[in-house]
């Protein structure tokens, strides 16, 4: 099962996540009961009314959180909110994974404020986030995730819309996204994007919950069969789009998706020996693959296109190598989703031509069919030891594996 969070258009907030999960099927009565039990941990805040109702957001029927509260505070220390959240999830006897998630969410929010203002986490004061809203969002979402058993599922996230323009709050007016949003996403793999709405579309609470829910970014929907969709409405209304967060649950089509970086550069003035050395060095630095293609560029110049596939964490070191080893003046960097066919690693021992060998191979599975590939280094080693061609060795080993696998 895979869960896709889609904040590409309307962004994300705590109440939108919570409402989406209720729309997806989480027990709203269980959530409301848990939140009402938790309010006692924040004195001076009282929930007058809490409910979820179906509404229309520019033609989309969705669920919205209805909340009325009485509060006599304008700021609270972050550690006070944290203590209230921890006490709440402990009293509600949630799972260890759920408790860890809830605490991580508030820790992220406190940490971001601490780093922005250059103060200790114990000294952090919340203004906008001081409301019981923060507790309601984090505790409610934790209950909903556990009710839907989503802590055990794979969760991925499309690019997060943060809006545009400026935002005005307790610290004055600044460009959107505000510093808290940027700090929260700073150490996450998730991607953010602006638009021309001139509104804050992603809130700090929504962002801190999201980065603790998933660190798996995607650019496009995975290949999947959709089983259910949750539509969670935000409080604002916009003229050009529905202010609705979508959370989609479905079954992946026997494949795994991840996100990789593609590095490309054209090289037209170095030898084949240097290119060969370049491949070896980049692979040693953790690239997933390196390809070099001959081509023709402007003015009929022959060129070699170097294409590297790697994880985000390897980009800087590989870029340095490409520049230092080739002298290239530019590198194109892009994100790409990658479908990974499920595979398993296997090994077995056998005697061939009177000598014992350990043979390793990978077996892949896709749409009911299986294939296998023998590790080339093993083929080469056996070929050299028994003085037979790699073709003959591979033919023999494939027959042996097919007998074992009953293929």
Walkthrough of the structure:
By secondary structure, the protein is an alpha+beta fold. The chain folds into three domains: 2-254, no CATH class; 258-340, Transcriptional regulatory protein pf0864 domain like (Alpha-Beta Plaits, 2-Layer Sandwich), CATH 3.30.70.1380; 343-405. The protein is 35% helix and 34% strand. It has helices spanning 14-24, 28-38, 78-91, 96-117, 132-147, 179-186, 204-213, 272-284, 315-326, 376-386, 390-405; strands at residues 2-6, 45-57, 60-71, 76-77, 125-126, 154-157, 160-163, 166-169, 172-175, 192-194, 224-233, 244-252, 256-267, 289-296, 302-310, 332-340, 343-352, 355-366, 369-374. A four-stranded mixed sheet has the order 6-1-12-11. It has a four-stranded antiparallel sheet with strand order 14-15-13-16, covered by helices on one side. It has a three-stranded antiparallel sheet with strand order 17-18-19. Strand 18 and strand 19 form a beta hairpin. Helix 2 (28-38) crosses helix 3 (78-91) and helix 8 (272-284) runs antiparallel to helix 9 (315-326). The longest helix has 22 residues, at 96-117. It is globular, with a radius of gyration of 27 Å. The two termini are 28 Å apart. The mean pLDDT is 91.
